[in-house]
Amino acid sequence: MASEVRVRYAPSPTGHLHIGNARTALFNYLFARSAGGTFVIRIEDTDTKRNVEGGEENQLKYLRWLGVDWDEGPDVGGPYGPYRQTERLDYYRELTEDLMRRGLAYKCYCTEEELEREREEQAARGETPRYSGRCRNLTEAERAALEAEGRTASIRFRVPEGKTYAWNDMVKGEIAFESDGFGDFVIVKKDGIPTYNFAVVADDHAMRISHVLRGEDHISNTPRQLMIYEAFGWEPPVFGHMTLIVNEQRKKLSKRDETIVQFIEQYEKLGYLPEALFNFIALLGWSPEGERELFSRDELTRIFTPDRLSKSPAVFDPQKLAWMNGEYIRMADPDRVAALCVPHLQAAGFLPEEPDAAQLEWTKRLVLLVREKLHSAADIVPLAEVFFREDPEDEPEAAGVLREEHAPVVLRAFLDAVRSAEGEWTVDAVKALFKDVQQATGFKGKQLFMPIRAALTGQTHGSDLNETIALLGREKTEARLVKRLG
RNA sequence: GGCCCGUUGGUGAAGUGGCUUAACACUCCGGUCUUUCACGCCGGCAUUCAGGGGUUCGAAUCCCCUACGGGUCACCA
Length: 486
Fold this sequence. Notes:
Blueprint: E1 6-9, H1 19-34, E2 38-41, H2 55-66, H3 89-101, E3 105-108, H4 112-124, H5 140-148, E4 154-157, E5 164-169, E6 173-178, E7 185-188, H6 196-206, E8 211-215, H7 222-232, E9 238-242, E10 245-246, H8 264-269, H9 274-282, H10 297-303, E11 314-315, H11 318-331, H12 334-347, H13 357-370, H14 380-388, H15 396-403, H16 407-420, H17 427-441, H18 446-457, H19 465-472, H20 474-485
Parallel strand pairs: 1-2, 8-9, 10-11
Antiparallel strand pairs: 3-4, 4-7, 5-6
Helix pairs in contact: 1-10, 6-7, 9-11, 12-13, 15-18, 16-17, 16-18, 16-20, 17-19
The structure holds one RNA strand.
């Protein structure tokens, strides 16, 4: 009975890759890979009005960026193609005709306005809005009359009465619905294109999909789909409904919510590492067995099991994502991180359009210096400011340090040392300068470093001072000291 | 409103009847190391699992009710 695992991710090309969709894709991918199965991508483009130009390419591009790959799909082909629903219209038509012939589906001539009014009336009476079934038993003559009026028909599925549709959900367990809660639903729209609920079933069956792992918002679609499987005598796949991703207020992530970055593309632009995002998303509604939470894609691929999918909603915690990305940044090759930082430094005006080798080398040293403070490449900008902004406002603590009695003494001695320094301006050279000042003034530790840090940066905290001064360069260091000593 | 689903700390989250005087992680707060700043390291932060009943020798874990939160009721997917 252990048949092959075939799962799919079925996006609509209606926009950018959202974090929620990315998660659905990722878990299906993980499930397929962990089970040695097949991962399929199918484009659900039946809502032709909402399809956007380039939507499909964009979705696939960012899936790949994340590190997800697939075995069958619109761009790579496969034995069960085509993988775009609008290219499978003939197939759906045959199925529809079959249902009509067997009286399991019928034409509905109601207009949108009529249906709208019907729903309003039901709502006013406190009833659940549901299609009344008024075209259910039209005679041939009535049908002809309606068509003579110029009406076009949609096709509705005849929902069986008094039946229970139940399944054992991979994540939620037993779920059951009464068929009487559903009105006859449209399976083919007036434009001749099937609706979601019909097309998914047709395709999942045709593509031999064994498990359907999708968002919880699809739970109430499942009974409708089960009815269609039943109508054709097909065996339904195993269903699993993952909880939604919610924000810290426990509300479903809305695309309009500006407090959370929700599109994968934005994370790329902010300088997040795909492997960090992958890791983070994998922990959204799923947890591994042990105590570890940093995993490579390969590891996740090995340890993933769908039975550890959570039943309660996954709260998206941006702070934890930032921490995790920081962890990955520290593990990553500095050259790679530096490359990620360059565009941000350019945007801030800290690097020219075409930086030379020396500037790139400098950038890499900067990255190494501040790496432990970096949560994303975009964070490089505020950390780089200290090197480029002249006359920043002193922080209160820094101003306090500079008012201390011994500060001018230390600064004076440091300036002298800088001026008499010879040779290359390296970290070691800077360290030697501090030694000289210590000997000349007798100050050491905080008393020695703080005045210089405050004078040079206007702050009492920051990265390692020796390397900061080395990166600042001899000229800027001297100029800033001179300015302070006025 | 009907139908479905959920509810563990400041936060994420483990836990599927005794191993839990509830892991681990994030955040925050102490301490410590380093001639500066960080990193690191050590320690602290739920006598309690939404509330109330019940089952049981024993419940965060099973059952019921209440409250709260969410999802869904489209010719959108």
